[in-house]
Amino acid sequence: MRARTWMLLLGAALVAAWTLTAWPRLNDVETGRTPEYADLQPRHYSAWPAKVAEAAKACLAELPRWRLVGSGSGPGGTEMHAVHTTPVWRFDDDVYLRLRAEGGGTRASVRSRSRIGKFDFGQNARNIRELLQALDARLR
Predict the structure, then answer these.
(1) What is the pTM of this model?
(2) Which residues contact 5 (CB under 8 A, 6 or more apart)?
(3) Residue 25's Cα: distance from chain center in Å?
(4) Where do the domains of the chain lie?
(5) Fold of domain 26-139
(6) By Cβ atoms counted within 10 A, which residue in 34, 64, 74, 127 is the most buried?
(7) C-alpha closest to that of 85 among 101, 107, 63
């Protein structure tokens, strides 16, 4: 019985060690600004900002566990604030989508930040990927 207990404790320690080292210790990820996620870069769409904003709103309405909190436009472009809720623990992450006219189209950058905790186990990067994949599919 003691050997089994030690094996269980060792297994739990190994899982905990892997969990703590598998993801960067971040709770704030932004396209083009987080070296730990070099694959997350701003997108350029050939459509104008108003069309990209319309597509983004449609994506946020369709994606599960996402809700649009607010949006606004001005001389600097359009910004949207959405909230993504994780499925198991029900944590809310704030996600900001910024759209700027650039080069005859639109530059879209995304920032996702956890409200709770010092690191997110990769959730913010997953949030950005999910939103950009949905936007890519809608605009291409």
Answers:
(1) 0.86
(2) none
(3) 15
(4) 26-139
(5) Alpha-D-Glucose-1,6-Bisphosphate; Chain A, domain 4 (3.30.530)
(6) 127
(7) 63
